[in-house]
Amino acid sequence: MPKVIEKLSQQLRRPDAIYVCPASDADYDPTRNAGFSIPIEVVRGNRGLPAQRNAIMRAATDADVIVFFDDDFVADRFFLQETEAFLKRSVGTVMLTGDVLADGINGPGIGYEEACDLVDQQGVLPDEKLENVFNAYGCNMVVRMTPVRERDVWFDETLPLYGWWEDVDFSRRMAPYGGIVKTNRLRGVHMGSKSGRTPGQKLGYSQVANIVYMMQKGSIPTGVGLVRISRNVLANALRQFKPEPWADRRGRFLGNLKAIGDCLKAPANPQNALKL
C-alpha cells in the first residue's frame, strides 16, 4: 500500500487529499508515507470493505468527488486529470470507471514493479470511447458525492469481509440518479493481490448469499443474479478437480452449496459467511 500511495504523487492532477481505511492497524503503517507531499488521513471503520468505504466517504466531508482505488491498483498519471475533466463536462454522470489494462484477480497476481511498468509504458491518451455500464469496477471507482449525501446511498455493510459484489450493489442503487460510465481514458493495472482476500468457503458462501440478498432487496435483477450465481457454482464445481494454485476451488464450492441450502430455507443472510 505505501508504494501505491507514493505512485499517486505522479498524477498530473494531484489528489487534494488521500484517505486510507485499513482493516487493522497491521495493514498500514503511516510512517511509511511520513513527509508525503499530499495530505494523508487514516480513518477507522468497522472491518469489511463496505464499512471501510463508508468510513472514507463520511470522513471526506468536503469532497465533491471520491476516487476509490484498491490498495493493489496502480493508476496511470492521467487518471485524476481525466476524471476531473470528464465530470465537469458530464454533470449527469454519478459514477465513472476506467479501463483495466491488466487484471491479476483471475490469475496469480501482478507484481508492483510490473504494474508500474505497464502503466508507465502507456503513451498519449487514446481517442475517447465511452460505454454506459451496469456497474463501476470497485478497484477504480469514481463517485460523485452529491447523490450519496442527498439520497442517502451508502455501501451495504450487511455484506461482510471483502464484500463480494458490493460495487455492483452500490452502483445499481446510484443508477437512478445519473449515468454510470466507463471511459478508456482512465487507465490502470489491478494487481489482484491475494493477501487480505476472503478464504475459500467464506468466499464461496458470499458468491451465492450476497447475490441472493441483492435480488431479494431489489438492487439487482433476478436474471442477472441467477446467471452470475450459476457461473460461480459451475466454475468452482469443475475446477475443484484441477484448481489453480492461488484458488481454493473446493472450499468455494462447499461454501456455494452451504449458501444454496441456507437460502432455500430462509431469506439470504450474507453475515452467515462469518460463521464458516
Q: What would you call the quaternary organization?
A: single chain
Please report the number of helical segments: 9
Q: Would you identify the regions where 5 or more consecutive residues have pLDDT less than 50?
A: none
Largest sheet: 6 strands, mixed
Strand-residue fraction? 15-25%
Question: How would you classify the helix and strand content by structural class?
Answer: alpha/beta
What do the pLDDT scores average to?
A: 95
The level of helicity is 25-40%
Q: What's the count of strands? A: 8
Task: Describe the global form.
Answer: globular
Order of helices and strands: HEEHEEHEHEEHHEHHH
What is the CA-CA span between the terminal residues? 28 Å
User: Nearest-angstrom radius of gyration?
Assistant: 19 Å
Your description of this structure?
This protein is an alpha/beta fold and 276 residues long. The chain has helices spanning 2-7, 49-59, 79-89, 112-120, 145-151, 166-174, 200-217, 222-239, 249-265; strands at 18-20, 40-42, 65-69, 73-75, 93-103, 130-132, 140-144, 179-190. Strands 3, 4, 5, 6, 7 and 8 form a six-stranded mixed β-sheet that branches. A two-stranded parallel sheet has the order 1-2. The longest helix has 18 residues, at 200-217. The model has no long low-confidence stretch (mean pLDDT 95).
